[in-house]
Automatic annotation (TrEMBL):
Biological pathway: One-carbon metabolism; tetrahydrofolate interconversion
Role noted for this protein: Catalyzes the oxidation of 5,10-methylenetetrahydrofolate to 5,10-methenyltetrahydrofolate and then the hydrolysis of 5,10-methenyltetrahydrofolate to 10-formyltetrahydrofolate.
UniProt keywords, alphabetically: Amino-acid biosynthesis, Histidine biosynthesis, Hydrolase, Methionine biosynthesis, Multifunctional enzyme, NADP, One-carbon metabolism, Oxidoreductase, Purine biosynthesis
Family per similarity comment: Belongs to the tetrahydrofolate dehydrogenase/cyclohydrolase family.
GO biological process: L-histidine biosynthetic process; methionine biosynthetic process; purine nucleotide biosynthetic process; tetrahydrofolate interconversion
Protein's name according to its UniProt entry: Bifunctional protein FolD
GO cellular component: cytosol
Organism: Paenibacillus lactis 154
Amino-acid biosynthesis in keyword set: yes
UniProt-listed Enzyme Commission number(s): 1.5.1.5, 3.5.4.9
Length: 282
């Protein structure tokens, strides 16, 4: 690894954000409002259960109420939507998170879109995606927002840069592309059908890996001096980039773990607190 490569420490970014959030939580509680995040887990996927538990623990450490709704794997789309609508109508709940993925027989998009926009703190609704694309979403998708937050924390320029995003999911690749575009980057979106992927990645001043394949992005693809943001998390605690090889050429890179992940969770908490603040203004 080059001695000049900047390691983008997600824990430092997350801790800085949480210090500010703790103050806001206390201010809200003094006014009689406890921020509340409701998490919905459908089925018994162990990885999903772990993610929900981590988010719940993070809430508790900040004094945010964590309300867990656990539904059987046999839950229907209609039953899930009914549970979401109950939370929409509960004024004590400020944010709703439906843990992805849900069992295959459920219409996940219909379930996501049942979440009220003012409680869509994870940025998963079609309306929230549209608002993000236009640049005025209150709560953009958390991992894309975390990527931008890391770049801002380390004062890494976005405007005028060529950003290459590998991945096009509706809650990561596409929204982060829109956020980079709205910050005046030139954005190329790559995916599984992209030809000559390595050649395209090599053009990127900013490379965002969101493909869901361990060590997929190769070191020789990285333009010398590029900023590499790895949003992947795979078995064995490895990301989507070949970290050691990419770090040799990058000017800055996120590790996995302790890179984008901690900031994603902190962003979810931030959105929940902001949603609680908005209830005082309505």
């Amino acid at each position: 690894m080059s001695t000049e490569t900047l390691i983008l420490d997600g824990k430092a970014v997350s801790d800085d954000l949480k210090v500010k959030l703790a103050v806001k939580v206390e201010q809200l509680k003094a006014k009689g409002v406890t921020p509340c995040l409701a998490t919905i887990l459908v089925g018994d996927d162990p990885a999903s259960a772990t993610y929900v538990r981590m988010k719940g623990n993070a809430c508790q450490r900040l004094g945010i109420e964590s309300r867990k709704i656990e539904l059987k794997a046999s839950t229907t789309t209609e039953e899930l939507i009914a549970a979401i609508r109950q939370l929409n109508e509960d004024s004590a709940v400020h944010g709703i998170l439906l843990q992805h993925p849900v069992p295959h027989h459920i219409d996940e998009r219909a379930a996501f879109d049942a979440i009220a926009i003012e409680k869509d703190v994870d940025g998963v609704t079609t309306l929230g995606f549209s608002q993000n694309a236009f640049g005025f979403a209150d709560y953009p998708s958390c991992t894309p927002a975390a990527i931008i937050a890391i770049m801002d924390y380390y004062k890494l320029p976005i405007e005028g840069k060529h950003a290459v995003v590998i991945g096009r999911s509706p809650i990561l690749g596409k929204p982060v592309s829109m956020m980079l575009l709205n910050r005046n980057a030139t954005v190329t979106i790559c995916h599984s059908k992209t030809n000559n992927l390595g050649d395209i990645v090599a053009q990127g001043d900013i490379v965002v890996a969101a493909v869901g394949k361990p060590k997929f992005i190769q070191g020789e693809w990285i333009k010398p001096g590029a900023v590499v943001l790895d949003a992947g998390y795979n078995k064995g605690n490895v990301g989507d980039v070949d970290y050691e090889a990419c770090a040799e050429r990058a000017s800055a890179i996120t590790p996995v773990p302790a890179g984008v992940g901690p900031v994603t969770i902190a962003t979810l908490l931030k959105h929940t607190v902001e949603a609680a603040e908005r209830t005082l203004k309505s």
